[in-house]
Amino acid sequence: MSRTLGPSPEEPAGPVLRPPSLLALPSYLAGHAARIGHDVLVEAVGREDLRLPHFAVLTALADFGPLPQHVLADRCGFQRSHLGRYLDTVEERALVRRARDRADRRRQVVELTEEGLSLQRRLREGVERGQDSFLEGLTEQERRTLTRLLRRLLDADDLARAARAGARGGAG
Questions:
Q1: Can you tell me the distance from the alpha carbon of 111 to that of 117, in angstroms, rounded to the nearest whole number?
Q2: Where are the beta strands (DSSP E) in the chain?
Q3: Is the C or the N end of the chain the one with fewer CB within 10 Å?
Q4: Phi/psi at 80 (nearest 5 deg)?
């Protein structure tokens, strides 16, 4: 379905500083909102001298438990070749440990240490406070709706990527 996009019919919250035709593009708005949200996350995680990929690794392991290294990369949306560097950093800080997979000695399984779980919980609290700041202009219902809609976009993209990978005969 194609339609002409023009200025949004909604009244602006303040002076219009950007071109109204751009402000009518959801992808333009999402990109700029993502930058603001990204900065909030970077600040929260950076207080512990970590980067977002490190937080993603700790969070994935907290959510899913120990994972083979290739599965962890896929769950975090990382290129598998980049994960090793991220793991080196958190392993040096004793936040994770890697061990050979007993079921397949060619693979490594990554798991959180107690220190890693403790730090992940502290980081999560800081990140949640940052989300409150990022979304302060929205009601609780609007926040839930925004999260649900963004999740639908990501889920659709994940399904499309999986279908393309399946069509190519690969796993990602």
A1: 10
A2: 67-68, 96-100, 108-112
A3: N
A4: -60, -35
Name residue, tokens 């990369």: 73
Q: Quick: pLDDT tens for 79-127.
A: 999 999 999 999 999 999 999 988 888 889 999 999 999 999 999 999 9
d(CA 111, CA 69): 10
- CA-nearest of 91, 85, 39, 31 to 61 is 91
Listed in sequence order, the residues at least 6 apart from 86 whose beta carbon sits closer than 8 Å to its beta carbon are 51, 53, 54, 57, 78
Question: CA-CA distance, 116 to 104, in Å (whole number)?
Answer: 25
Query: Within 13 Å and on the Cβ side, how many CA atoms surround 97?
Result: 7
Whole-model pTM over 0.85: no
Q: What is the pLDDT of residues 128-168, one digit of tens each?
A: 999 999 999 999 999 999 999 999 999 999 899 888 888 88
